[in-house]
TrEMBL record:
SUPFAM superfamilies: PUA domain-like (SSF88697). InterPro entries: ASCH_domain, DUF984, PUA-like_sf. It comes from the Bacteria. Residues 25-151 form the ASCH domain. CDD domains: ASCH_Ef3133_like. This is RNA-binding protein.
Amino acid sequence: MDIPTYWKNFKQQHSEVTTDDYEAFSLGNPNDIAQQDSLAHLISDGIKTATTSAYDLYAQDESDPLPKVGEYGIILDGHQQPLCITKTVVVEIVPFLQVSAEHAYHEGEGPRTLDYWRKEHWKFFKNEYKEEHHEFNEELPCVCEVYKLVYK
C-alpha cells in the first residue's frame, strides 16, 4: 500500500486526527534492509517504543527537522512500505553517556540493557558521523524520542 493511502486509512479510523502532517521513515542503516525490517517490526509489535538519533546530524540535513511531541510517524519497513503509525510523546536531548537504562530498555533491541544499547549505538553513531566527516564522542548530544503505537 502506498503511504498516502495508509495515512488516509488511519485517519478514517481515527476521526480525532485532523492533521495531515506526518513523516514517513525507516529506522536504522539505510543500506541494511534486514535491520530496517527488524526495527519496524519491533515497533509494530509494541516492543520498541523509543529511538535515539544524533542531534548534530539534524543540522546537516535541513529537510529532516527534529522530532516534536504530538507528531505522527509512518514507520516503513526495509522495502519502504508502511507498517504502522506512531505518535511522539517525549523528546529529550541528552549527551550520549547520559542516555538512561530506561530509555535503552524502551528501545527494545537485543537484551534491552544499557550496555548493549551503548555498544550498538556507539558503532552506529560513529559510522554516521564518519559519513559526514565528523568524529563522534560520548559527550555529543543525542535526541531521545519516545512514541506510542497508534495504528497498524
